[in-house]
Design goal:
Structural class: mainly beta
Largest sheet: 5 strands, mixed
CATH topology of one domain: Chitinase A, domain 3
Distance between the termini: 25 Å
CATH class of one domain: Alpha Beta
CATH superfamily of one domain: Transcription elongation factor, GreA/GreB, C-terminal domain
Helix content: 10-25%
Strand order of the largest sheet: 3-2-1-5-4
Strand content: 25-35%
Shape: globular
Number of strands: 5
Length: 101
């Protein structure tokens, strides 16, 4: 079972994925980066996925190094989280859009 935080609730541990986190994941096809957003802000082509999507739900509450299995409409994906960045950390680095492991 995947652990999650309440919608919009930031966990005490800043390394955990929450709303507005940018997450870099790796699977058999390579690496991708997602920012977790509310459904009204989702835009998959820009890497903004809803926290209610299968991948978004599976990532919430997880940390770098976690391996998760996600059931998506396209089939099961095995993902490893290789990096998590909060919006605040991205802005401090002067890079509002990317995650570094």
């Amino acid at each position: 079972m995947v652990s999650t935080t309440s919608p919009g609730q930031e966990p005490a541990d800043g390394d955990a994925v929450h709303l507005s986190s940018t997450v870099r994941v790796r699977d058999a096809d390579g690496e991708e980066e997602y920012t977790i957003v509310r459904s009204a802000e989702a835009l998959v082509v820009r890497g903004r996925i809803s926290m209610e999507s299968p991948v978004g739900r599976a990532l919430l509450g997880r940390r770098r190094g976690d391996r998760i299995e996600v059931r998506t409409p396209g089939g099961v994906r095995l993902l490893t989280i290789v990096g998590v960045a909060t919006a605040e950390a991205r802005l401090e680095r002067g890079d509002p859009g990317s995650c570094t492991p």
